[in-house]
Amino acid sequence: MSRFLLIGPPGAGKGTQAEQLSLAFKIPAISTGDIFRHNVKNETELGKKAKAFMDRGEYVPDSLTNDLVRDRLSQSDVADGFLLDGYPRTAEQVTELDAILAAAETKLDAVILLTADTDEVVRRLLGRAQEQGRADDTEDVIRRRLEVYEEQTAPLIDIYAGRGQVLRIDGLGEVAEVTSRIVEALERQSGTSSR
Ligand code: ADP
Questions:
Q1: Residue 195 pLDDT > 50, yes or no?
Q2: How much distance in Å is there from the Cα of 79 to the middle of ligand 1?
Q3: Rounded distance, CA 27 to CA 39, Å?
Q4: Among 5, 60, 146, 150, which is best to mutate for testing ligand 1, by the most ligand atoms less than 8 A from CB?
Q5: Backbone angles phi, psi at 111, to 5 degrees
Q6: Given the CA of residue 11, which atom of ligand 1 is nearest to it?
Q7: Distances in Å between the alpha carbon of 162 and those of 47, 92, 195?
Q8: What is the SS3 assignment for 125-149?
Q9: Could you give the domains of the chain?
Q10: What is the pLDDT of residues 94-148, one digit of tens each?
């Protein structure tokens, strides 16, 4: 069973690594950011509610985010494992996820913390802004996203560290190199192979 969280600042490379880990472990990668962006693009009710928060670099309210994740984790493809990318991001979301997992009589196997220093993440996000033109990748919004991460999400690391579940991985380097670091850390932790 592989049930993982991927935590780290914006720009640490969570989305990229989530894709790689999804392939390596044959589990769905669930990115709340991607789901919100998809909803914004398709102008769904959820998208309309989320857009203003996202454009400012603020978090979407917990009630909306929690409902979304509860629904996604009730689908059958997550029965044998999943990787959550970008959730939980607040203490209230941790409480919700704990409840969802408890109700399913299951638990997380590991929390992967992807680290990258602020200079590097700002550089990456500004680069991505030029390539992709994401609405929340302007310099002011990037700065706000980093602040919100420090205020609301960084404290979650202590919660999971207190449970002995955090694997701290250096997010700097080639994509494949970072993926290997994660896979090796997971193997060391569980004593089993992913393949
Ligand atoms: P990044 O990791 O680059 O900050 P994401 O693609 O993960 O970006 O998320 C983009 C935006 O979607 C966030 O800035 C936030 O507004 C919203 N979002 C994503 N996940 C959550 C969450 N768990 N709680 C609240 N808002 C979220």
A1: no
A2: 24
A3: 22
A4: 60
A5: -115, 115
A6: 3
A7: 35, 17, 29
A8: HHHHHHHHCCCCCCHHHHHHHHHHH
A9: 2-190 (3.40.50.300)
A10: 999 999 999 999 999 999 999 999 888 998 898 888 888 777 888 889 999 999 9
Interatomic CA distance for residues 2 and 12, integer angstroms:
22
Residues 171, 121: contact at Cβ < 8 Å? no
CA nearest neighbour of 65 among 33, 107, 41, 40: 33
- Expressed in angstroms and rounded, the spacing between residue 33 Cα and the centre of ligand 1 is 4
pLDDT tens-digit map of 25-68: 999 999 999 999 999 999 999 999 999 999 999 999 999 999 99
The pLDDT of residue 193 is above 50: no
Identify the burial level of 162 via C-beta atoms within 10 angstroms of its C-beta, where 0-12 means exposed, 13-18 middle and 19 or more buried: exposed
